[in-house]
Design brief:
The protein is globular. The relative contact order is 0.17. The chain is 26% helix and 27% strand. It has a single domain, classed as 4-Layer Sandwich (Metallo-beta-lactamase, Chain A). By secondary structure, the protein is α/β, with parallel strands linked by helices. Strand 5, helix 4 and strand 6 (121-125) form a beta-alpha-beta unit.
Length: 278
């Protein structure tokens, strides 16, 4: 994979990056990690945090994922801390052509409110769109993580010419790259984004939890375990080679304790790349 060299990046190509924790789930380790019994470890409690992410500067605004809707979250036993739509309003996310929504993958907790945007443009991997929309798989293991009405939104966006489908990793804008890393899903996207303190990797669900990467313990829902292992290796290489200064796992609860709160939404949002709290 050829990465853009940001050594001489312009100031205007750096971004403020915000993570918003909009929900959570109290569950068990055996419900989170694939084939957990094979580790021969006692079961125990586990928590998943649900986030979406914002990368913006004076020129551009990118929203990574749109979260689950409160109604869908409640039906699935997830707790909503703040409606993502309320969070967008509090953080000044506009529904206009200056906003690009990157959809990391098509699971319900990442595309749930996409229909809220009537003017923004969207980006998704072509392999992801193909798997879920063009040639949907009718099996329980895939159906349980999607909402048919939300897939219809993707189809409508594509038909309206508002959904850009990418077939390979690419620099979407100066200082912001999309990296396709399959495994969890066929077209899982990560975002490498330049900040004033270095490049961050928003892993989304290529890495759900820090422990998943550290111990190579795949998450419960995987479309391709071999591809997932290759994606873990890529993430580690990016960090080891200095291409990213921090890896932000998509459902890691401890993020809220590691980064400073955002002043506009201090109970729910943190500034990634900020000075670590404490």
């Amino acid at each position: 994979m050829c990465l853009t060299d940001w050594a001489d990046v312009k100031h205007e190509d750096q971004y403020e990056v915000i993570a918003v924790r909009y929900g959570d789930l109290a569950t068990s380790r055996s419900d989170v990690f694939l084939n957990y019994s094979d580790y021969r470890e006692p079961d125990g409690p586990e928590q998943l945090a649900y986030y979406f992410w914002i990368a913006r500067n004076d020129v551009r605004t990118f929203l990574l994922d749109t979260g689950f809707s409160p109604a869908v979250g409640a039906r699935r036993g997830r707790r909503t801390h703040i409606d993502p739509r309320e969070a967008w309003e509090a953080l000044g996310i506009a529904d206009d052509a200056s906003t690009t929504v990157v959809l990391s993958h098509a699971h319900y907790d990442h595309i749930g409110n996409a229909g809220h945007f009537s003017n923004a443009r969207f980006v998704m991997a072509d392999a992801e769109f193909d798997f879920w929309v063009r040639h949907p798989r009718d099996q329980h293991l895939t159906r349980q993580v999607i909402e048919p009405s939300e897939l219809q939104v993707l189809s409508d966006l594509q038909a309206a010419g508002r959904l850009q489908l990418i077939s390979d990793s690419e620099e979407l804008a100066p200082g912001l790259e999309l990296l396709i890393c399959p495994g969890h899903t066929p077209g899982q996207i990560m975002v490498r984004v330049n900040t004033a303190t270095g490049a961050l990797l928003l892993a989304a669900d290529a890495v759900h939890l820090d422990e998943e990467l550290d111990r190579k313990m795949p998450f419960r829902h995987m479309c391709d375990i071999v591809a997932a292992a290759d994606s873990y290796t890529l993430v580690e290489q990016l960090r080891a080679d200095g291409h990213v200064s921090d890896v932000i796992a998509g459902h890691e609860p401890s993020l809220m304790e590691r980064f400073a709160p955002h002043p506009a939404l201090p109970e729910h949002a943190i500034v990634l790349g900020s000075r670590l709290v404490g």
